[in-house]
C-alpha cells in the first residue's frame, strides 16, 4: 500500500497534469470499489474545472470550482493512469507497475479538455472514490479521525510525548495508528525506528524524552528524503511521470532479513518478526 511519500509524489504529478483542466465527461465502468461510485458523478461534476490537487495523509483530494472535492484512496492496488492524446502516451502511478492497462480492472475514467484522461484502475477494489462538499472536508468520517501529518509543525514533542506516556502499546503499533500520526505505514515506520535505534516492540510509555525527540526528527528527515527521491519502488512503484521511486535503495532494514546492519560500526544482523501480522525488520544489536 502506498504510504505518505508515494501519495505525495502522485499528488504532485496529478497537480502538474490536471490542475486548471475542465472535466468533459466521466465514464463509470464498474462502480464496485470499497464503496460504490456515485452513479450520478458525471451529471454532478461535468464541465467543472480542477482548482487544486491536495493530500491528507494517504488520501488525495481533487478540488473542483463547484465547491466539491473528489476524495480518492488507492487502497492496496489502486492505480491512476494519465492518458495523453488519447492513448498516445500513458503515465501511471502504482506499486504494481505495467505499461499496459488491463481494462477489465478499470473502474472510472475522467476526460478533460487538452486531450487528457484520468483512469482509476483497481484489481483488489480496496480503494475508493467519493465526491464530498469541500466545506465538509474537516467533518468527513475518513479524514476527521486522522492525527497530525508527520511533516507538519503540529507533530512535535509537545504533541507526541503525552501520547506515548499514556499508552502501553508497542512503539511500532502506536506509530502505525493513523489517529496518532497520519500517513505512516509499515515501510517507513521500520526505517524510522531503526534510524532512531529503538526496538519496534518497545513499549511506548517507557521511552525516554531524547528517544521520542529522535523519532520525531528522523520521521521528518526520512519522509522528506523519500519524497525527494520519488517514493519507494516496492514491486515497482512509479510516479505518474513514469519514473521509479528511488528511496528503496536507501532502505536500512526493510526487507533485509538476515543481512548485516548498515549502521556504521554495528556488527548486528537484521531480524524479521511479525507485529500485528505485519513484517517487521530491526537490528537486534543497535535497536534497544
Explain how this protein is built.
The protein has 288 residues and is an alpha+beta fold. It folds into two domains: 136 residues, N-terminal domain of MutM-like DNA repair proteins (Alpha-Beta Barrel), CATH 3.20.190.10; 110 residues, Helicase, Ruva Protein, domain 3 (Orthogonal Bundle). Helix content is 23%, strand content 24%. It is built from six helices and eleven strands. The strands form three sheets. The protein has a five-stranded antiparallel sheet with strand order 1-7-8-5-6. Helix 5 packs across helix 6. The longest helix is centred in the last third of the chain and has 20 residues. The protein is elongated.
Would you spell out the secondary-structure blueprint of this structure?
Elements lengths: L3 H15 L4 E6 L12 H5 L4 E7 L2 E6 L3 E6 L4 E7 L4 E5 L12 E7 L3 E7 L5 E6 L23 H9 L5 H6 L9 H10 L13 H20 L41 E6 L2 E6 L5
Helix pairs in contact: 1-6, 3-6, 5-6
Write a brief structural summary:
With 288 residues, the protein is an alpha+beta fold.
Describe the global form: elongated
Radius of gyration: 20 Å
Q: Order of strands in the sheet with the most strands?
A: 1-7-8-5-6
Coarse structural class: alpha+beta
Main sheet makeup: 5 strands, antiparallel
Query: Beta fraction of the residues?
Result: 15-25%
Overall tally of structural domains: 2
Q: Level of helix content?
A: 10-25%
Give the SSE string.
HEHEEEEEEEEHHHHEE
Query: So, CATH architecture of the largest domain?
Result: Alpha-Beta Barrel
Q: Which superfamily, in CATH terms, is the homologous superfamily of the largest domain?
A: MutM-like, N-terminal
The CATH topology of the largest domain turns out to be N-terminal domain of MutM-like DNA repair proteins
- As residue ranges, the low-confidence spans are 232-246
Number of distinct beta strands: 11
Overall mean pLDDT: 89
- Give the CA-CA distance, first to last residue: 28 Å
CATH class of the largest domain reads Alpha Beta
Number of helices: 6
Amino acid at each position: 500500500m502506498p504510504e505518505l511519500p508515494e501519495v505525495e509524489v502522485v499528488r504532485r504529478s496529478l497537480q502538474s497534469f490536471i490542475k486548471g483542466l475542465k472535466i468533459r465527461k466521466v465514464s463509470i465502468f464498474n462502480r464496485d470499489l470499497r464503496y460504490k461510485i456515485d452513479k450520478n458523478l458525471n451529471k454532478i461534476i461535468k464541465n467543472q474545472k480542477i482548482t487544486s490537487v491536495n493530500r491528507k495523509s494517504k488520501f488525495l483530494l481533487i478540488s473542483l470550482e463547484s465547491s466539491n472535492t473528489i476524495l480518492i484512496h488507492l487502497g492496496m492496488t489502486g492505480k491512476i493512469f494519465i492518458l495523453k492524446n488519447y492513448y498516445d502516451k500513458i503515465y501511471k502511478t502504482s506499486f504494481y507497475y505495467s505499461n499496459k492497462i488491463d481494462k477489465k480492472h478499470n473502474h472510472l475514467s475522467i476526460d478533460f479538455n487538452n486531450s487528457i484522461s484520468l483512469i482509476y484502475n483497481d484489481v483488489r477494489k480496496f480503494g475508493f472514490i467519493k465526491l464530498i462538499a469541500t466545506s465538509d472536508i474537516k467533518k468527513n468520517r475518513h479524514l476527521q479521525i486522522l492525527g497530525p501529518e508527520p511533516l507538519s509543525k503540529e507533530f512535535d514533542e509537545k504533541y507526541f510525548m503525552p501520547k506515548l506516556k499514556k499508552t502501553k502499546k508497542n512503539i511500532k503499533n502506536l506509530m502505525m495508528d493513523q489517529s496518532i500520526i497520519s500517513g505512516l505505514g509499515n515501510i517507513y515506520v521500520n526505517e524510522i525506528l531503526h534510524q532512531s535505534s529503538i526496538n519496534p516492540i518497545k513499549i511506548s510509555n517507557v521511552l525516554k524524552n531524547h528517544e521520542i525527540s529522535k523519532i520525531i526528527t528522523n520521521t521528518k528527515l526520512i519522509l522528506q528524503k523519500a519524497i525527494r527521491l520519488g517514493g519507494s519502488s516496492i514491486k515497482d512503484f512509479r510516479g505518474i511521470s513514469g519514473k521509479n521511486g528511488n528511496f528503496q535503495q536507501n532502505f536500512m532494514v526493510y526487507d533485509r532479513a538476515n543481512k548485516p546492519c548498515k549502521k556504521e560500526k554495528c556488527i548486528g544482523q537484521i531480524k524479521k518478526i511479525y507485529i500485528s501480522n505485519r513484517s517487521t525488520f530491526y537490528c537486534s544489536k543497535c535497536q534497544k
